Each structure stands twice: as structure tokens, then as C-alpha cells.
Amino acid sequence: MTLRAYRDLTGADASRVGEQIDAQRAQLAERLASVRWVVAVMSGKGGVGKSHITGLLARGAAASLSNGVGVLDADLASPTVAHMLGADGRLVATEAGVTPVLGANGVRVASSAFLLADDAPLRFREPNGERWIWRGTLEAGVLRDFLTGIRWGTLDLLLVDLPPGPGGVTDLAHLLPAVDGVVAVTIPSEESRRSVARTATTAREAGLRILGVVENMAGYACAACGVPGPLFPGDAGRRLASAFDVPLLGRVPFRPPDAPDATDRDAEALTERLLGVLA
Amino acid sequence: MKFLCMECDEQMHFAERREPGDGTFTASFVCPRCGRAIAMLANPMESQLVGSLGVKIGGETLDDPEPLEFVRAHVEGADPALTGGTVGRSPTPPDHLASRQRPAWSPAAMARLDRVPGFVRGMVKRIYGEYATERGIPEITPEIMDRARVELGLEGM
Predict the structure, then answer these.
(1) Looking at A132-141, A266-275, B15-24, B111-120, which range is the least confident one?
(2) CA dist list (Å): A72 to A2, A41, A58, A122, A175
(3) How would you list the strands of the sheet with B13-18, edge to edge?
(4) Does B74 lie at the interface with A, CB-CB under 8 angstroms?
(5) Strands B37-42 and B25-30
(6) Are B56 and A20 in contact (CB under 8 A)?
(7) What per-residue confidence (pLDDT) applies to A21?
(8) DSSP class of residue A131?
(9) How many CA atoms does the CB half-sphere of A149 hold within 13 Å?
């Protein structure tokens, strides 16, 4: 009786795991072949308004591009961008597949929010012990499923709203090698600058192109006239753009609800600069 | 993973994959020379490890996977939401069902289930499963499926 090594058996692995993973990648490439640009929006820390900026970019792009804009909310555990875009509904499987939910300006949105009850957290069906072993794999699997299983259709731009921190950036780089670049979102503070710099460095090391920096909450817009006054100290946006040799795509002030609505102007200005970099 | 029939020094062929429903899976392999069969039984953690990669023992995902199959399999509440049920409904069975053993599927019943369009297969499987569980039926066979179709008005499933 002999006991041979794995490679001594020349027959295929019964489960063809390698082929299955290749098939996943091929399906992903096929589904995104009709998408002109895939752009991720990242930040170093939470609370800087990354999803708000994603929403502005989506609205602005949908108003100026003719072939459609999509948003994938990759912040699975804390999905917010769908609500910001006014996308309210659910993902339903039909014979034609799963279609995204429409938001403002016809933006096509996919989010875990469409699968969860109000205020319910995202729960995976994993065994209770050692969740940390497969949490990352499960999250990557859900993102891959959203990218390949959703019928995005023809799009000029697909924005991916990443969770804060470097983990989402590296996951995306491995999952989606064809991503066209990332937009870094910061607030003016030094703390945010340091945090975004670390994440941007991670993005570069993962081979992702940094398309530019957006400084959010760059001042507080006057409720009467809309002119921004000071809010946070610092100029993280300019410094990050300089350090990474990328354009500062915009400085967006915080606009209180009673200030003159300039959302469309903010969206238009940001989008124009982003599309200029992509073109 | 490969399996070797040591008697014949021959690589065994994958034969069948079963999910009894308790979080485990069973894969059987057969020696093409002597016909000896073995079964590999994976515990829930091992099943999870394979499942989290989005691959299946036996390579089933190569053929026309269901839309958002991974999401349905791993995110609580996603399957009923996607198939038109209540968004975020817990997949946990009602209390009166939880203590009962979930039924097994016979090979013939599984083959029949495989002919159901992929996008509703999960829902159909769950309906038959709940039907059998409520009645204490240990194994779902084509005959049980026929009976359920008549009693539940599931013509076409």
C-alpha cells in the first residue's frame, strides 16, 4: 500500500476549487465590462462624511453623464449612503436577476440596508466561536456577490462607498483589480490627515490610483447667506493632496438644514473635477 | 482536496454532496476501479470555512448560480428578503419547530429540486423543509414533495 503526496495524484481536485474561484473572477469581470469607470471612496476614520461625499459625487455624475451611475455601499455593517440618496426599497430576485434600487437622479444603488430590517445589525450565519477567522472572507464574499449578482447594466460610473480604514481598501484591490482609482475624504483636522494618509498609503501599496482628495466639513455655511465660516482647524485636504501629488477635488462646507441649499452646486463642482481626472 | 483509494492506488472520484441541514455537509467519493465508497463528514466550522470562500465541494457553483447566492447563504434574513418575504426576517424557525430534527433530502428529491429555477430554489427548499418538519417527516422524497404540492397548493414547484 502506498501513500502519495497531493501533487502525485494528477487528477483534478474533485471540487475544482481553483476553477470555481477563477469562475468567480471571470463572472465579476464580465458583469463589470459594461461599466466605464469604477471609483472607490475611502477615508481613514469614520465620521468624516465619506458617504455624504459619495452621494454628492453620484448625484453630480448622474446629472452630467448619460449612461447611468451606480453606487455600491461596501460599508456592510453600517450602510448609510442608500438613505442619503433617497434609495428606499429592497433587492428582490426575479427571473431577470436582482436589480438595484433607484435613488436620486436615477442612481442605481445596492446596499445591505435593503436586506436588513430597520435598526437590525448585519448578522452572518457563522458558528458562534472564532468569528474573526472568517469575518473578512464573508464580507469580501458579500461584496463580490453584490458586484456580480446585481444587474447593474451599462454604467458610466460605479462608485464604491468603502468602510473607514485601510481594510476595505486592500479588500477591494484584491477583489476588483480593474478599479480605476480611489477618492480620499478627510476633514480639515490633523487627526484626520494622519488617518487618511495611512489609508492612502495602503491604497498605493495595493496598486490603487489615488484620484484626488476631498476635504469635507471645510467650514460651516452661514444659515443666512451660505458663505462658509471656520469650523475645524487645519488644512488636511491641501496637505494630503500635496503629499500624494494628487488634485484637491474640492472643499465642501457643512451646510446646516436652514442654510441655502447648495447641494447641487457642491455635487456639480466635485463631479466636474473628478471626471476631469478620469478622462 | 483529493482522496486516494489505497487498495487500488487510484484517485477517487467525487460522487455526491449532501447538506443534512444542521450546518454540516457530507461529500462522498468512489474509487473508479473497485467501487469502494467513502464519505467525508465536515463539522459546521469546517463547512463554514469552505462556504465563506463562496465555493462548494463538488464544484456545483460552476453551473448557473442563483443571484446573490452567497448573500442568501451567509447573511441572516437575506434569503426571505430576496424572495419577496419580510425584509430582515429572522431565518430562525419558530419555537415549535426549533426543537424538531430537520428532515433529510433523498437523492431523488435533491435531483428534482435541482430542476427548480435557481432564483427560487432556496425558497422552494425551505417550504418543503418546513412542511416535512411540521409533520415530523424524517426524509423528503419525491412522493413527499407531491403530497406537499397538493396540500399547500404549490403547483409548478
Answers:
(1) B111-120
(2) 52, 10, 11, 16, 14
(3) B13-18, B25-30, B37-42
(4) yes
(5) antiparallel
(6) yes
(7) 80
(8) G
(9) 26
- Which backbone phi and psi does A225 adopt, to 5 degrees? -115, -15
CB A187 within 8 A of CB A66: no
Which of B19, B61, B69, B126 has the most A C-beta neighbours within 10 Å, making it the best mutation to test the interface with A?
A: B61
- For residue A175, give every residue at least 6 positions away whose Cβ sits within 8 Å of its Cβ, in sequence order, or none: A28, A140, A143, A144, A147
d(CA A112, CA A74): 8
**A119 CB neighbour count, 10 Å cutoff:** 6
- Cell numbers representing residue A267 in the block: 455635487
Q: Do B75 and A122 touch (CB under 8 A)?
A: yes
**A24 touches B: beta carbon within 8 Å:** yes
Q: Reduced to 3 states, what is the DSSP secondary structure of residue B24?
A: coil
- pLDDT of residue B99 exceeding 50, the answer is no
A46 in Cβ contact with A185 (< 8 Å): no
Cell of A79: 450602510
Q: DSSP character for A259?
A: S
What is the H or E stretch that residue A39 is in?
strand A35-43
Rounded Cα distance between B44 and A10, Å, is: 30
Which residues neighbour A235 within 8 Å (Cβ) at sequence distance 6 or greater? A188, A215
- ipTM comes to 0.81
The answer to whether A151 and A110 have CB atoms below 8 angstroms apart is no
Q: Which residues of B touch A14 (CB under 8 A)?
A: 1-3, 12-14, 27, 29, 57-59
The phi and psi torsions of A9 (rounded to 5 degrees) equal: -85, 110
pLDDT of residue A237: 96
Check the CA dihedral A205-A209-A215-A216 and report its sign: negative
**Whether the predicted pLDDT of A14 surpasses 80:** no
Interface of A with B in 149-178 (CB under 8 A): 149-150
Q: Which residue in the block uniquely carries the three cell numbers 452621494?
A: A55
What single string gives the DSSP state of each residue in B51-112? Answer: HTTT--TT-GGGS-PPTTHHHHHHBTTHHHHHTTS-TT---SPPHHHHTSPPPEE-HHHHHH
| pTM (two decimals) | 0.74
CB-nearest to A142 from B23, B75, B77 is: B75
Q: What is the pLDDT of residue A203?
A: 95
* Grid coordinates given for B148: 406537499
Report how far residue A235's alpha carbon sits from residue A217's, in angstroms, rounded to the nearest whole number.
Answer: 11
